Amino acid sequence: MAVAVAAVAPAACGSPPERPPPAVQSVPTVVNQANIVRVRSALPDGYEVGDLQGPVSAAALWGFGSGWTATPPQCAVLADPAPTDPTTRGLSASGPGGTLFVVAATAPAGAPTPEVVDQCGSWAMRFGHTTAEVARTEGPAIEGAQTIAWQAQARTVVEAGSETTADAWTAIAYFDRHVALVTLVTDPGSSDPPLESGFAAGLLGTTVATLRS
């Protein structure tokens, strides 16, 4: 009898088997494009602010009308990430330092492929008498988002062969099947100091956080 008890005792005294930790269920992020109106408080003081809605492309904000072209053509997606989204919402703000545009739209296809981004380190745009040479720059770091940024100087030939120019900087963030972009357009001939691209980059981060809240 003692032998039988000794054989069972170790099993009775052993620690119970560890249970696997409960699975953590991720809660999908809710993005509300209507929250774009809250970005007003982050715009420069004294700027005149208006609303944007309907499909909006970065190219249009630069002054390129319908029918503009990109060279190489695959780079066009960088300037028009949500060409047909009727739910697009945004803000425009103009003042002495330039014009700011903040836009939010759905982007079910997500960000451009790495191959397209690599092929578009520099590219060109054209619409009528307006052209721009575009150079990709480093996008701002935003947690949970893929960002792309570029800068250009748009030139328009007007009467008698004279030119008007505008400096443009755009950054786009792709996140949660949505896209947010901030564009800053400044006049190099203005006597007022322009807003810096760093301000616009910070505004993009604010916009993404606001849309997620």
Molecular structure report:
This protein is 20% helix and 34% strand. It has a single domain (32-212), classed as Protein Transport Mog1p, Chain A (3-Layer(aba) Sandwich). It is an alpha+beta fold and 213 residues long. A hairpin with a 2-residue loop joins β5 (122-127) and β6. It has helices at residues 2-13, 58-61, 76-79, 114-119, 197-212; strands at 48-53, 69-71, 89-95, 98-106, 122-127, 130-137, 146-157, 163-175, 178-186. Residues 1-13 and 22-28 have low confidence and may be disordered. It starts with a helix and ends with a helix. It has five helices and nine strands, in the order αβαβαββαβββββα. Strands 1-3-4-9-8-7-6-5-2 form a nine-stranded antiparallel beta sheet, covered by helices on one side. The chain is globular.
User: DSSP strand (E) fraction?
Assistant: 25-35%
- Secondary structure: helix percent: 10-25%
Q: Give the averaged pLDDT, no decimals.
A: 87
CATH architecture: 3-Layer(aba) Sandwich
In angstroms, what separates the terminal alpha carbons? 69 Å
The biggest sheet, with number of strands, parallel, antiparallel or mixed sense and barrel status, is: 9 strands, antiparallel
- Radius of gyration, CA atoms, in whole angstroms: 26 Å
> Poorly predicted ranges (pLDDT <50, ≥5 residues)?
1-13, 22-28
**Quick one: how many beta strands?**
9
Give the overall shape.
globular
